[in-house]
Amino acid sequence: xxxxxxxxxxxxxxxxxxxxxxxxxxxxxxxxxxAGSEPSPPQTDPNLLALERSNRDLQEFAFAIxxxxxxxLRSILSLSxxxxxxxxxxxxxxxxxxxxxxxxxxxxxxxxxxxxxRYSQAAHGATQFVTVDMNGVLQWVLSNLxxxxxxxxAKITSSPLPTVxxxxxxxxxxxxxxxxxxxxxxxxxxxxxxxxxxKDDHWIFSVRDEGIGIDPRYHAQIFGLFxxxxxxxxxxxxxxxxxxxxxxxxxxGEIWVDSELGRGATFHFTIxx
Length: 273
Known about the structure:
By secondary structure, this protein is an alpha+beta fold.
């Protein structure tokens, strides 16, 4: 077999491995989505308790399989880069394009697996509820997003935020997902405002932007796993808001959005006082 034919064979083999992994990840995604869609049952019905245990087992299985899928993805990315370096100028345009597709597909699958792990953790992972200063949570999130904020030239303001009883890392996930979305779906220079007001026995936190907005018909849908309203020009797998919903619910709160197309969006979530 000629060197060029051998190169093409190796590229095709990598493509087949990526396709098999895509099928496995699709099945994993469907399992996680199915388990995550069931509401938490009351603790008195034996049948519903069995369903809860089944869902928990499925989530744990998905968590384990996600880890197992990471290694072959790393292997595919390493092999595609090795092929690219080894072949150099000898690789033809068709195989080079195929290698690029393999790299993009593998990187996308790795991000999806990471999102699935975060969702599984938000739904059933261990949490440590302590006294949490939400001002500190916000500062941590803004520091984490500093590169995106600076590159977008975003202006972010906040009112003083309260102290709540919750899990620092999980609450940071909520704010980071909401602020990231506000940056991603902005029109022009992003302007984002974070506020909190006390009402009855809970705090209502709000993240307001002046972005592209959301059709009211889809206000409930966007909190589902893998639910996206926008095309590939906007990055993301449709997991961030599903994670936020799970975290808020585990804190005994609710999350919703007020928005219209072209008029920005305000996401609200509650945390018990």
